[in-house]
Amino acid sequence: MKHLTLIGLALGLGFGGVAKAAEPIGLCLFGTYRLADGQLVDVGPTDGGMRWRRMDGTTGKITKGADGVWTSRQGWTARPDGITASFGDCAQDTLIFAGQAGHRLKFEVQDTRFQGDGVALRGRLVLPPGKGPVPIAILVHGSESNAAVENNSTQRIWPANGVGVFVYDKRGTGGSEGRYNQDFRQLARDAAAAVTEARRLAGSRAGRVGLDGGSQGGWIAPLAATLTPVDFVVARFGMAESALAEDRGEVMQGLTDRGHGPEILAKAREVTDATGKVMTSNFTDGWVELEAVRKRYGAEPWFKDIKGEFSGQILSAPEAAGRIAGPFFNQGTSWDYEPLPVLRALDTPMLWILAGSDREAPPAETRRRLVALAREGRPIQVLEYPNTDRGIVEFETGADGKRTPIRYADGYYGAVLDFEKTGTLSGRYGAALRLTDGLKP
């Protein structure tokens, strides 16, 4: 969840609104296809091409060659994986993927506009074909600023597996009105309104209805569940700590990865306390404390290794530039929001899925809190995928320490779908650790 970029402003660079995105490549080809062997492959938008995803978590980016054949590269790497794809024309709904013929699945789709918290929002209900009730997941956004109705592949993958989806553009993005922000309470009211609209559109087809949020959605979805009745909440790679803790945890993890020990981490905590005060005061306070830690530690080798969500950027900007520029990038983040009381009070069954090696939101304290809540008797189940980063993606690490995602974890999709369908988890879900199984109050 990125909040600001001060360096460019400190150098006098301008800034503007979000540019209108070009029409995605392959727009009329997007969809979930069933192959001859019965397996599913989804094809959707990505920068400069299209991205395919399979239910086992494998994925790749395909780009079109001069011969009309789409060639794939593994995960988010530049490495060819040997997969090619070709499509019929837009009216044919056909695909040949890795040598297998497939056809595009059709769903029941209703586009809508509905009233959020004071603004009109664009939404879409996507249901599997049929007449009977189905579970419906309301997709709660993370901090991304793109249009979910156009870009979120879950709106196809879930209905292909028997789970309906209501997807909506968050305020200030895509076809929704309002100003983009990160005010968790207001966004939770928008999400609660989306639940109401999904139930209205689905009518008698609405079975289990719940909230499914990733990243920032891990704060918003449980909060929305306090505003409207739902049957489940899913929080993927979210945090059971405050937004300030995300920056602090990322700073500490980065320093640990660079070999710094407890003594340095204790000093770094003084730094994040100061940068946190600057951020929460909207850049009006905390500068005295920040200058004090700069003088105390600025010459020490570890100081330059501080990154985080915002701490490294605040440290890199002079006070005058920060005071002037910082408020322009204030997105109204709910720094004061503490999720633990909400999670402790909720009776709604929840599934949390953690990325065990998440650098952006290190999971140690979230894991501890969730397990403790489950032990208290809260209806929380926790899965953790070891050796995965943000998004529950497996990765390879280069000599420079940079991680490149190569696939989603096997079993990840299946776990979410099973929970949304039944409220239970059965069997194994790839390498997932089931942290709350067998816990008793």
Give a quick precis of the structure.
With 441 residues, the chain is an alpha+beta fold.
Task: Report what the structure shows.
The strands form three sheets. Strands 9-10-12-11-13-14-15-16-20 form a nine-stranded mixed sheet, with helices on both faces. An eight-stranded antiparallel beta barrel has the order 1-2-3-4-5-6-7-8. Helices cover 30% and strands 26% of the residues. It contains 13 helices and 20 strands. Mean pLDDT is 91; it is low at 5-22. Helix 4 (184-202) packs across helix 5 (217-225) and helix 6 packs antiparallel against helix 7 (262-280). Strand 4 (59-64) and strand 5 form a beta hairpin. The radius of gyration is 22 Å and the shape is globular. It has 441 residues and is an alpha+beta fold.
